[in-house]
Structures are given as C-alpha cells and as structure tokens.
Amino acid sequence: MAATLAHLLLLSAVPLATAETVLGAYIFHRHGDRTTKSYKPTVLTSLGAEQVYTSGQYYRDQYISSNASAKINGVSSDLAVLSQLQVTAPTDDVLQNSAQVFLQGLYPPTTMATQTLANGTKVNAPLGGYQYIPVNAVSTAASSSNSEDSEWLQAGSGCGNAVVSSNNYFLSEEYVSALDSTKGFYSSLLPVINSTFSADKATFKNAYTIYDYVHVSQIHNASIPASSLLTTETVHQMQTLADKHEFGLAYNASEPVRAIAGSTLAGQVLTFLNSTALSTPSTPKLEIQFGAYATFLSFFGLASLPKVSENFTGIVDYASSIAFELVTNSTSAKPSASELSVRFRFANGTASEANPAQEYPLFGQDQTLLGWADFVKGMQQFAIADTASWCKICGNSTGVCADALGGSDSSGSDPVATAGHSGGMSRAVAGVIGALVTLAVILGLEALVMGLGGLRLVKKAALRRNAVEEVSQTKA
C-alpha cells in the first residue's frame, strides 16, 4: 500500500502534457470529377461538386468548427473572416468552380441570414445565407477560362530548363521501352476508343488521355462500345501505364528542374508557414490552393514520399488534397522556432470521415511530426521561394526575369529557398509569390502543351536549339 501511495504521489508531481495548438494550415487541393477532355466544353460535374463540397466539410470539422478536432487557433468558426483566409485557383472553370464549392463546405450558410431593420422589417439573405468568399484567380501565361477543354491544361510552365528536361523523358529508355512494349495493348483497346482515337494515336504517348477518356466514360456512360474488353485487369493496366507516363513527366531524381511545380509549391508553403510562425500582421491562418495533379506528383518525388509507398507515384484521384499543419505545444502567444513543428497529411480522393487525411513522413524521415528546423531544412533542399532563384534554375533571362535578375546578386547566391537563423525563411523571401504567378508556375509544372498526337522524338542537338518548344504535357 505504501509503495502504491508513493507511486501515485510521484505521478501527481508529473505535469500533464500540454494540448497541441494548430497555428495555421496550408491545403493544396485537386478539382472534383469533370467531363472528359475529349469533348468540349469540359465542366465540373454534379459528382465533382459533391466531392469537393464533402472535402470542404471534412476540413471544416478538422480546422474550423468550434469543436474541430484540430481547430486552427484564432480562426472564426461560423462567419468567414476574409483576412484569415487566402484561396487561389487558376483562371479555369473547373478549378475555380471546385474552389467555390469547397468553400461552401468549409463555411456553410451563416445563421445570421435574417436581419431585422430599424423599422422592424425582416430581410432574408439570398441563397439561404450563402457566404461570399472570394477565390483569387491566378492568371498564367497560357491558361484561359476554357483551358480544361484542351487535352492538356495550360500551354507551358514558362521554365526553359524544365521544357528540356521534359523532352528528355521522351528520349529515355524507360519511355521508348514502354512505347514499344505496349503497342499491342493499346491496339486492343481500339474497339472501345476508336470514336475518339485513331490507330496511330492509340499508343503509350497518349497514355493519360486514353485513360482519362475511359475513366470518365466508366463513371458517366451507361453504354460503352465493346465494354466487355474493359476488364478489371485491363483498366488497372491502363491506369498503371498512365501513372508511369505522368510521373515520368513530373519528376526525375537526376533532373530536379523537371519538378518545378513541386519546388514552387514548397516555396509557397514555406513562405506561408513562416509568416504564420512570425505572427505577421494580417497573415491568413489558412491558405487553400486548387491546382492540377502533376503538382502533387512533383512534390511527392521531391519529398521522397515514393520511399514510403509506391502509391505516391500514381495520379491522385479527383478531389485529393495535401495539408501542412504548423503546430505547437507551447502556451506562449508567440512560440519560438524550437517550439514549432509541422505535420504533413494526404487524402487520396475526397477527404471524409471514411477517408481521412493520413499522416505521412517527409524527406525519408521515420517521424510524421517534424520540428520546424528539420522541416525547413528538408524543404529548402528543393524549394524555390523567389523570382530570381526561379529564373536562374529555369535559365530564363527575359520578361519578368530580366527585372528580377537585374536587381539581384547573380554571382552565386543559392537559388533555393533559404532559412533564417531562427529556423524560418528569411524575411527577404517572405513575399515572393506574386512574381511566380506572373511566370505561370504558381500551380506547377503541369508540363508543356501537346496535341493528341503531338509528342515526337528529336535529337538532343535539336532539343538544345529548341529549349522553349512546348512538347511536354500539362495535366489537370
């Protein structure tokens, strides 16, 4: 009894663990289900709207509502406060609409929809109290309001060296081997796809477009020609080949510039979380960006996530999302860098109670919760956080880059985002995203445009002469 009492007294002397506080979060999100790119116009479907709306509800329950499981400190629960939110999407109907619907799940109609005026008149807000949350339109060099009508979203990244790197994929042994070995497989699909793809287009070079066409048809078409050919094994092979094709365009360990989308996203995440950590006045607590799946693949490769699972080399499903949470156990109003940590989450497909965003370790680590310094160190291995660095890495020197390089020290400064001594990014790099928008890389590499049969093999000498030729795919 005495020993037991002594043990209880010892336990009572141990302070209880401090509850974790979420200081801010950054979400990158794919659009919902859409119609096929093969028939115009490409639009967000009712299913797609439901997918992103459900995801918005999930993240509301995660970060926003009064009883949220990981409520962001200081964020309004019911009435959207615009200074607390930053939401962006390209000037594209599918992505813009996805962002709008997601926000209605995040902040549903307000209970303050009815107001009584001084004269006693009651006024009901339209749409049942719909909250008008703006989505900042990101204009890129090649996007338009109808860019989803194209086989490939956006005309190009604008990054010359990324163009060359993407061309290199089509010269690789991996690509040429797959092109040759799958000729029979794609020819066998002609009874299913010949209304859209001619025999010479039914090859691995169009692996994603063919898969997209069949995938959308299986979701929405009650009748598909020669549907008996679309066995489970056949569809799985189509998807696996599309995954291989798209990951090859989005990332290459020997040529990091190919993953310019992931590098730019990493720079944006660092900039946002650093501002949140510094408690910069008027800094949003939650940033949400809608974009295309190639950015996911680029970031996955750079962050060594394929080492965790080969699933990170595949095309993410509609309405997939990744989230970066800045957290602390400190009770201080302004925690020090040593008291901050970052957690990475990923939901393949619509995030929901049945499919929650799971924690995964970044940079080959074995822990899912990284200290701020370790997180910054890992991200700065590939993050691009200012215009001059982007221009140097891309080999661009005209347009915006002429101004950026002309006003910077180009004598050897590190072109990758750097961290300040406190463990965060230097203040000099804190506001760099605007110029990256102008360079059409805010939402990623999404590689470079080509027509349905537009890929062609060229000699390396020709590649050097045509470094800006847009031949790599852009995906959504």
TrEMBL record:
Residues spanning the membrane: 428-455
Entry's Gene Ontology molecular function annotations: phosphatase activity
Signal peptide location: 1-19
Keywords: Membrane, Signal, Transmembrane, Transmembrane helix
InterPro entries found in the cross-reference section: His_Pase_clade-2, His_PPase_superfam, Histidine_acid_phosphatase
Superkingdom field: Eukaryota
SUPFAM superfamilies registered for this protein in UniProt: Phosphoglycerate mutase-like (SSF53254)
Pfam families on file: His_Phos_2
Family: Belongs to the histidine acid phosphatase family.
Protein name as catalogued: Uncharacterized protein
Naturally occurring in which organism (per UniProt): Coniochaeta pulveracea
